[in-house]
Specification:
By secondary structure, the chain is mainly beta. The chain has two domains: 154 residues, Immunoglobulin-like; 125 residues, Immunoglobulin-like (Sandwich), CATH 2.60.40. Helices cover 14% and strands 45% of the residues. The longest helix is centred in the N-terminal third of the chain and has 21 residues.
Length: 317
């Protein structure tokens, strides 16, 4: 009797684990190509939804890498290789976050700064011109299980010279994501929202896209002498806990010509969040803070709020 009971429990556990693995799974990744020591070119993002051996995919690539190119794609997992027919992409303009996915093992991500490397349509910030690829195919029945258990890589071979690079090969390490929905956020950053308020004339605006637990961002700020930019929280007068220091320094203010009046310098990157941090973000409890020598606890700041909410009201002293 005892053996029968244990056998039944083991069978139920096995069936439950099998059903869990076979539930429709979504994987997301950022397509990158090394262009120098510690610097990656970002080609775009790819997302796959896998149900055992049935796969559907979407991929958004920057126009500069995909326009007029012949693309060969392969999905690889645990020694198995499956060709993916990308077909002909549809041109369009998409929000910044659509082009980025998690880049496993690299945080912060050393994005390149040069517009010609990323996309000739860079000046369309915070949206970019690109090509959207979509399709579906049938692979072997155990594909989903292998991808969930062993991980997977998508290799995107572009044939022909692109941006001076011969036959670039972009690689995306795919990460399982439980929630592929994209949520957009904005932070309006100035001295009126700082605690305590000060008289700094400087200001910035930040746009964020959250896909699963991966947060991509663009920040535009008129150049000034800041020392650190970070995401802090919770959003309260006594909040001093630094969540992340955003990797903005890699762009270097000297790379952007100063005009009269000064043109905003634009930075972009991405960070991976924990489940708890993503929830804090969705609740509106996090904010961007620019620290400077004159204001070591913050010169300008702004709450990160979902785009379907109203603007952050300036704080009162």
């Amino acid at each position: 009797m005892k053996k029968t009971f244990l056998y039944a429990v083991a069978t139920l556990c096995f069936l439950a684990s099998t059903l869990l693995v076979r539930a429709e799974s979504t994987f997301h990744g950022g397509l990158v190509y090394p262009i120098g020591e510690g610097i990656l070119a970002i080609g775009g993002s790819v997302q796959l939804t896998v149900d055992r051996g049935q796969v559907s995919f979407t991929s958004t690539l920057f126009r500069g890498w995909a326009a007029g190119a012949r693309i060969e794609a392969t999905l690889e997992t645990h020694g198995k290789s499956v060709p993916v027919d990308f077909g002909v992409g549809t041109p369009g303009v998409w929000p910044f976050g659509e082009f980025f996915g998690p880049i496993i093992g690299i945080n912060p991500i050393p994005f390149p700064c040069w517009p010609s490397v990323i996309d000739p349509g860079f000046n369309m910030w915070p949206s970019f011109e690109g090509l959207r690829f979509a399709g579906s195919f049938t692979a072997f029945a155990g594909l989903e299980t292998l991808m969930r258990q062993k991980g997977a890589t998508l290799k995107l071979q572009i044939r022909g010279p692109v941006n001076g690079v011969p036959d670039p090969l972009f690689i995306a390490q795919l990460r399982f994501v439980g929630n592929p929905e994209v949520i957009s956020f904005t932070a309006e950053i100035n001295a009126a929202r700082q605690i305590p308020r000060n008289n700094s004339p400087n200001e910035a605006v930040a746009h964020f896209s959250l896909r699963g637990n991966f947060l991509s961002y663009t920040i535009a700020a008129v150049p000034f002498d800041w020392t650190t930019v970070g995401i802090y929280g919770p959003s309260a007068p006594n909040a001093h806990a630094l969540h992340w220091s955003l990797p903005l320094e890699f762009c270097g203010l000297s790379l952007v010509p100063i005009q009269e009046p000064p043109a905003p310098t634009r930075y972009f990157g991405g960070i991976a969040l924990t489940d708890a941090e993503a929830q804090e973000l969705k609740r509106g409890n996090l904010y961007v803070n620019f620290l400077s020598t004159e204001y070591p606890r913050g010169e300008i700041r702004g709450r990160i709020l979902p785009d379907d909410r109203g603007p952050d009201e300036p704080h009162e002293n």
